[in-house]
Amino acid sequence: MLARERAELGFSILELMVAMAIFLVLCGAMFGLLQVSQQKYSSETQLSGAVQDARLALDQIVRDFNVSGYPSLEMFSSQPTLPVTYALGPVAWSPNYPSAVCTIGTGGGGSCTTPGDYDLILETRLGTDPSVSWVRYQLISTTLYRGVVQKSSTDPATATSGSGVMVPFLANVVNAVNPNGSPQPIFRYTCDTPGGPIACASSAAGLANSPLNIRDVDVTLIVATPQRDMQTQVVKFVELNGRGHRSNPTN
Questions:
Q1: Is 109 domain-assigned?
Q2: What pLDDT score was predicted for residue 143?
Q3: Which residues contact 209 (CB under 8 A, 6 or more apart)?
């Protein structure tokens, strides 16, 4: 009888405390794993978003350059009366476009306002629009902007700098303030020369160093995640590279 009565009394205080302690330890471990999982998910989502945004931007730049220079003057059976109906070349420049001669330099040098390391104006016909357009990409601080205007008799840099023309295209671009090394140009240019394709800024390019002779553009985008990694408390970066090749050889 004594043993039965003792068994019916239930758990002792000590047993309840031990059970509670074990339960709290298990809950702490579970919530800790959940927090790590949430941090990991947040970091991976940010990184994936940065890759996706950079990939879409890179693809658009390459597509725009691939069709640059259309239509050239040589593609018309009769001389067009309006310069805005044909592309003088794949790339517009300034100052005093199109009469001024300019050269492409390294580190943003040369006599061109654009094209440069972080600034590029393409000249092409978009879609079914009968007029030729200027498409500009320009890095301002850490935002890459894109703008489109119809070609006109004005300077292309001035025309594309008008109010409301340039709109944010890709955020958190850190090429010019690369924290992992020296600044990295977004655009590098290759020019056609009698001896073959050569980097435009190279001394070997000689007289061929001109926006009219640009055949390829190598694009590098270094994009930072919007926030720091929740685990390491550091910003992550993605770097994507692509090449645009001008398919119109007639100008």
A1: yes
A2: 97
A3: 103, 104, 110, 191, 200, 201, 202
Q: Which residues contact 176 (CB under 8 A, 6 or more apart)?
A: 118, 139, 142, 183
**Within a domain: 3:** no
pTM to 2 decimals?
0.82
Please report whether residue 14 resides in a domain: no
The pLDDT assigned to 231 comes to 65
Half-sphere exposure of 213 (CA within 13 A, CB side): 22
Which one-letter amino acid corresponds to residue 140?
A: I
Q: CA 4 → CA 1, 13, 14, 15, 16, distances in Å?
A: 5, 19, 20, 19, 20
Can you give the residue range of the structural domain that contains 239?
36-245
Residue 22 lies in a domain: no
What domain count does the chain have? 1
Q: Mean pLDDT for each consecutive 10-residue tract of the chain (251 residues)?
A: 56 75 77 66 75 95 94 77 83 84 79 91 86 95 96 90 94 89 93 91 89 94 82 82 85 65
Distance of CA 116 to the CA centre of its chain: 15
**Cα 129 to Cα 107: distance, rounded to the nearest angstrom:** 35
List beta partners, residue 110: 104
Instruction: Please state, in angstroms and as integers, the Cα–Cα distance from residue 42 to each residue in 29, 46, 55, 232, 234, following that order.
Output: 20, 6, 20, 12, 13
CA dist 230 → 31, 34, 48, 134, 223 (Å):
16, 13, 15, 42, 18
d(CA 28, CA 6): 34
Question: Which tens digit of pLDDT belongs to each residue from 13-71?
Answer: 777 777 787 877 777 777 766 666 666 656 677 788 889 999 999 999 999 999 999 88
